[in-house]
Amino acid sequence: MIKLIYTGDITYSSSLKPLSASSSVTYIEGMANGKTIRIVIDTSTKDKKEFLINKFNSLGVKLENIDYVINTHHHYDHIENNELFKNARIITYNNYKDFEEGLSKYGIKIMEVLGHTMDSIAIIYGDYIVSGDAIPVKNNIFKNLPPKVHEDKELATESLNKIKNLRKNIITGHDGLLNIEDYADY
C-alpha cells in the first residue's frame, strides 16, 4: 500500500523565486515473508507536525512503528519532522545503498536523481515513483522543465526524463500525485 499523506505546497514570488515550501509526505506499508515494513518518505516542515500526527493517527498508524524514514534530499522542507519517527532508521543519499537489498524484498527500489541537489534520490514502489524535488511540481513534466532550483541543470533534466520514461504515477515533491494517464502524451 502506498498513500499520499500530505500533497505538499510551494509558493513563488512574482520573480518566480520560492517563498515557502513544504514537501509531500508519502507512506508505504509493504509485506514480505509475513513481515510488515512501514516507511515514510520525506517528513515536510515543522508547521505540518500536528497535521502529520493527526493524519497518521486517523490511519491507525503509530509513529513509533515506522521502520524507515527516507529523505529524498537534505533540504529543510523535506526533513523537519524526522524526529516524529523516533524508532525509524533514516535513509538518505549517503547511506541508501546499505538498505537496497533489504528494501527490495518489499518491492522498494531507490534510484539517484541528481541535479536539483547532488544528493537526490527517488523511491519506486509498484506503479509509483516518489520523485522528491527531481519533479517538484506537475508542470515540470507538462513543460519538460527541470526544477527552478537546481545545482546542475543538465543532470536535473536527465533525472526528470529518467523519471518520466519509467511511465509510472509520480508523487511530486510539492504538488501531489500526477497519474500516468495525465502525462502520457507529454
Question: Describe it for me?
Answer:
The chain has 5 helices and 12 strands. It has 186 residues and is of the alpha/beta class. The chain has a single domain, classed as Metallo-beta-lactamase, Chain A. The chain has a 5-stranded mixed β-sheet with strand order 1-4-5-6-7, with helices on one face. Strands 8-9-10-11-12 form a 5-stranded mixed β-sheet. The chain is globular, with a radius of gyration of 15 Å. The two termini are 27 Å apart. The mean pLDDT is 96.
In summary, what is this structure?
By secondary structure, this protein is an alpha/beta fold.
Topology:
Layout lengths: L1 E5 L2 E4 L5 E5 L2 E8 L2 E7 L7 H10 L9 E3 L18 E3 L8 H5 L3 E5 L8 E5 L2 E5 L5 H5 L10 H13 L3 E4 L4 E2 L1 H4 L3
Parallel strand pairs: 5-6, 6-7, 10-11
Antiparallel strand pairs: 1-4, 2-3, 4-5, 8-9, 9-10, 11-12
Q: What number is the mean pLDDT?
A: 96
Given this structure, which CATH class is correct?
Alpha Beta
Structural class: alpha/beta
Q: How would you write the strand order of the largest sheet?
A: 1-4-5-6-7
CATH superfamily: Ribonuclease Z/Hydroxyacylglutathione hydrolase-like
Pattern of helices and strands? EEEEEHEEHEEEHHEEH
Binned, the helix content reads: 10-25%
Biggest sheet descriptor: 5 strands, mixed
User: Which CATH architecture would you pick?
Assistant: 4-Layer Sandwich
Instruction: State the domain count.
Output: 1
